[in-house]
Amino acid sequence: MGDFTGKAELSVSQGIRMMFYVFHPNESSFETIEEVPDYVEKATPYFIVMLLLEMIVSWTRKGKQIRVNDGLTSLSAGVMSRLPNVVSRGLEVTTYIYIWNNYRFVELPWDSPWTWWLAFFGVDLGYYWFHRLAHEVNIIWAGHQTHHSSEDYNLTTALRQSFLQKYFSWILYWPMAFFVPPSVFAVHLQFNLLYQFWIHTELINNLGPLEYILNTPSHHRVHHGINPYCIDSNYGGTLIIWDRIFGTFVPEKEKVVYGLTHPINTFEPFNVQIQHCTYIWHTFWDTPGITNKLSVIFKGPGWGPGKPRLGLHEELPQVTGDEKPYDPRLPIYLQIYAFIHFFLMLAIYTHMFEAKLVLSSLTLLLRILYILLTLTCLGFLLEQRPSAPILEAVRCSVFTLLEKYGYLTTDIPYLSYICQIIFPISIAVWGLQAFRQSMNGTKKTE
């Protein structure tokens, strides 16, 4: 979120319970929004631990490893989605505060358990309707499709988020701003998001009676499926009761195949984020008639002239269960290299959020640009594009220059010394490979 400045420290017990929305109103009620902790930021170590645990259990129980290319793409999308929060407060909270300050007609007590529970149900109901609209309105789907573009289903998928989605979701929460204090709303907005992390796993099958009330891994696997029976179902955030009430609940049946009905087949982060926006743009201009053009934007992703609002299910691609995900061969050394450089970037990214109040505007700008450059380069490497070597040599040179002048410092001991070894070697290796490519290209044209 990046919206909150509360400095309250969490115990390990609270940190674990935070990930499952098991908090008591007394320990998560605050009078002002400035006091609300940034729970999402504090969840970072728990994300990492749970990711590692899932990797270990998946490998030992099923012999299944997380694909580096897909996993890093999901993590890259998560990083990109949060970068705007470095320089501005999120639109969901900003608009909520504006309505509360100017138009509230009842001020419920911030420290009442009744207010806490009302916000719990209100945020979850708002999320259900936003999530449903994100699948049924094409322009909103343009943002949300990023989250569904992974053809794997694991905890990295939970972090594959869109930087566009937040510019639509605020609309479904603003009715609460007439009576629920912003500090209470801000707590539940974060907990609702954190709860949805752990349900992105194939390791948990059935939770018994809880399946009737809560959104569970089984229910959410269906939501991510492209099987015909999975489409347009299970939109709940924390609770599954809204789907049962509004007729969108579907239980898990045969094996779920994940991804998009029309796979994007790319690991390049900007492509992952905006490819459907590009599709809408071209479809809008190619579709005749103003009514049809507006329908391209505001009806479902599967709509076309003469079709119902959400399109025709019979036109969906056949799913056999034998589908293979997009997975170009990647040498093991390149997987290790991409993994190392992603986590070196992550150290800079994490420090930027921790120190954003004391870093200069120029430093923040240069860090954001460097992070975007890094994610783009890693995407090119994962796809082994011809331009990847020269671009990676340039990126490593940029890092060396910015680090020398103090723009990429962190608080991690010895990290600077490690980078002073890794990056010059990387510049030399990729520079040499780019030179060889250039020479080979010259010979072919002679």
TrEMBL record:
Catalytic activities: 1-O-(1,2-saturated-alkyl)-sn-glycerol + (6R)-L-erythro-5,6,7,8-tetrahydrobiopterin + O2 = a 1-(1-hydroxyalkyl)-sn-glycerol + (6R)-L-erythro-6,7-dihydrobiopterin + H2O
Q: Which cofactor does it need?
A: Fe cation
The family database entries (InterPro entries) matched by this protein are listed as: AGMP_C, Fatty_acid_hydroxylase, Sterol_desaturase/TMEM195
Q: Which UniProt keywords apply?
A: Endoplasmic reticulum, Iron, Lipid metabolism, Membrane, Monooxygenase, Oxidoreductase, Transmembrane, Transmembrane helix
Domain Alkylglycerol monooxygenase C-terminal: where? 334-421
Fatty acid hydroxylase domain sequence ranges: 117-248
Question: Example GO molecular function term?
Answer: glyceryl-ether monooxygenase activity
What protein name applies here? Alkylglycerol monooxygenase
Q: Which organism is it from?
A: Pelobates cultripes
Its lineage opens with: Eukaryota, Metazoa, Chordata, Craniata, Vertebrata
